[in-house]
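Dear support,

I submitted the protein below through the web form. The confirmation email said the job was done, but the results page showed an empty box. After a refresh the structure appeared. I'm attaching both so you can tell me whether what I see now is the final result or a partial one.
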Amino acid sequence: MQPETPSPKIRVTEELINFGEVLPEVNEILQRGVGLYRRDPAAADKAFREALALAPDQLPTYLCLYKIHTYQGNLDEAVAIARAGLAEATRQAGLDPDWQVWRAEQISDDVNGPGHFALYTMKALAFIHLRRDESKESQRYLEKLADLGAMETVGGSVIAALSAGVG
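What the results page shows now:
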């Protein structure tokens, strides 16, 4: 389940994924879910949802869930989870719930912080909407990422190229 661009708070070290600052019990469940993903996606989903129910403030859980659903083509579920993750990251970062009014100076440069997670999740939403053939919605997220100067830091330019048919 390695991402195409660096994911916030997540780094692969040896056989385990470093999810950053998460509760040990959440980390254990996420590790189990990652291990299950390739052979039993339904069990991985169940594990990730267990982690989410245990601690809904742990942002890497949202990332795991929206990624597996995107990979499986469950795009309605992926967008719902990504929106929930965006809302939680927004809350943690102290940002306005309406991402369309955000300004670059309001978002911390900390790549492990909730603001960066919010931006990364906006990129994911742009991709999910593109996969759902909702190019206008995808473009809204991409334009905001560009406005915030975050296209390169979260891999948005890759999604923009896909959207433009280059790639």
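Response: this is the final, complete result; the empty box was a page-load delay. The beta strands are 11-13, 16-18.
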